[in-house]
Design brief:
By secondary structure, the chain is of the alpha+beta class. It is 29% helix and 31% strand. The strands form three sheets. Strands 5, 6, 9, 10 and 11 form a five-stranded antiparallel beta sheet that branches. A four-stranded antiparallel beta sheet has the order 1-2-3-4, with helices on one face. Strands 8-7-12-13 form a four-stranded antiparallel beta sheet, with no helix packed on it.
């Protein structure tokens, strides 16, 4: 008769093997596809966006009553979006809920309000005199109601600006981006100003060229360095060759 402990040992080994095989199999990556509809007393009063892992795919233009794709590659899927009638019904329900909740919470709960945070950076590595894009990323938005303006050396800029619609974020806030096409020059100072219309509160982010290296200067410097290294190694090789051929004194 076999010892009872043998079966327990075999069972334990089998469980360990199964656990190791399970751990070796990677869990599939989780993705989040979300649709967020918001309504508020501030402008814009309505907003609707589809996002995938936090990146916006589509948004609905309420004044124009049409869907818009964030990128041209998404255009073929516009026809599969929710119909205008469905959006109208959802928007009406949202505004009804907003009215009810406003009446219940006014004077009882403080109004939630986020302080906008802005960060300005370039889309491409900085080279003076080469066209580039400045990006002003604005986060921590709640409610989703701000205006974004650009200035260069204190003067307003109105050309080459494209500002996205609001992106819903996982923390129940919003995010948006403002793009400015520009050609960086030495001494530039650009300002991205984010303003809440209700209380005129503004957040300001500055951008100045940080140690830019013009492409022509960089090419000349690299070329000079390559020539200097080539001369150094050539001289070193000649010296070593002469030393190796020098006759050694006999004892």
């Amino acid at each position: 008769m076999e010892a009872p402990g043998c079966w327990g040992l075999l069972l334990a080994l089998g469980l360990l093997r199964g656990a190791a095989a399970t751990a070796a199999t990677e869990a599939p990556t989780a993705h989040v596809l979300s649709r967020v509809l918001f309504c508020q007393p501030d402008r814009p009063s309505l907003g609707l966006a589809d996002t995938f892992d936090g990146d916006q795919l589509f948004s609905f233009d309420f004044p124009g009553a049409r869907w818009e794709a964030r990128l041209p590659d998404f255009q073929p899927w516009l026809g599969a979006q929710e119909s205008k009638e469905q959006i109208r019904n959802d928007s009406g329900l949202c505004q009804q809920l907003l009215s009810v909740l406003t009446n219940i919470t006014t004077g009882v709960l403080p109004e939630a309000r986020g302080t906008p945070m802005a960060n300005v950076f370039t889309a491409q590595p900085l080279e003076l005199g080469k066209p580039n894009t400045l990006i002003c990323q604005v986060g921590n938005l709640f409610p989703a109601s701000v205006t974004v303006s650009w200035q260069r050396l204190g003067e307003p800029v109105s050309q080459g600006i494209n500002t996205t619609r609001y992106y819903p974020t996982a923390d129940l806030g919003f995010l948006l981006f403002s793009y400015l096409e520009f050609t960086p020059q030495e001494g530039d100072v650009y300002t991205c100003t984010v303003t809440r219309p209700r209380d005129r509160f503004s957040t300001v982010a500055y951008w100045v060229p940080q140690n830019p290296i013009p492409s022509e200067l960089l090419e000349n410097a690299l070329c000079g360095l390559a020539i200097a290294l080539g001369i150094f190694f050539m001289v070193t090789g000649i010296v070593l060759l002469l030393k190796s051929r020098r006759p050694r004194p006999t004892e």
